[in-house]
Structure prediction request, 231 residues.
Amino acid sequence: MRIDILTLFPGMFEGPFSESILKRATEKKLVEIHVHNIRDYSTDKHRRVDDYPFGGDAGMVMMIEPIYKAIKTLKKERAYDRVIFTTPDGELFDQKMANYFSTLQNIIILCGHYKGIDQRIRDHLIDQEVSIGNYVLTGGELAAAVMTDAIVRLIPGVLHDETSALTDSFQDDLLSPPVYTRPCNFKGWRVPEILLSGDDGKIQQWKLEKAIERTKKRRPDLLDEENTGKD
Ligand code: SAM
Prediction:
């Protein structure tokens, strides 16, 4: 998979992309992540990428030309499955969307900044608009990093134990059950006996019960009709 990120602040990706799973996935060539500075596509001699809004209002607006040029340049090189814009008024990003994006070959993620981007970019150049939550960030960079992390860890071969992504919260509309490690007794706080029993069938049943119990308590909205059969 290849992910191209268009941003005014490429430095914001250095930390998240050079550690842990994203670093390993890139080194193993399971994903190619390219971060492009939108300023490099500016047609202005001062590399300007924003301007005052028509109609007057506070804040600056990202201009259409540099973004148009950046997307066109990338699209000349390969076909893209999706051009995604990060925006608080977009579709809410969730695990299902991450699963779907992880099956795609090439995607572009555009990060907005300031007051936002010229609406004509959204109307003519964007396939999908995605929000990572009901709050406003300063820019789309953190949203793009969050989405990239959630997507890349689902690409086969990225996680050491591939089943571990499948048992994460939300994969089956259930939250994850509690997990424990050694020591089995810490100051009298004991690990549930069942986990030490060696009976895999009973352990799996216990994990499912705990997952359902936790979901009912914390996120009853996830237990739609599909999951009631598991109760
Ligand atoms: N004026 C915009 C509004 O009220 O919808 C907010 C602009 S915000 C300060 C600047 C940029 O940050 C947005 O264009 C978007 O790319 C990004 N952004 C902010 N919040 C986001 C969120 N919850 N999810 C995804 N991107 C977000």
In short: Residues 2-152 form a domain with the Alpha/beta knot fold (CATH 3.40.1280.10). The pocket of S-adenosylmethionine is lined by residues 86-89, 111-113, 115-116, 131-133, 135-140, 143 (CB under 6 Å). DSSP finds nine helices and nine strands in the chain.
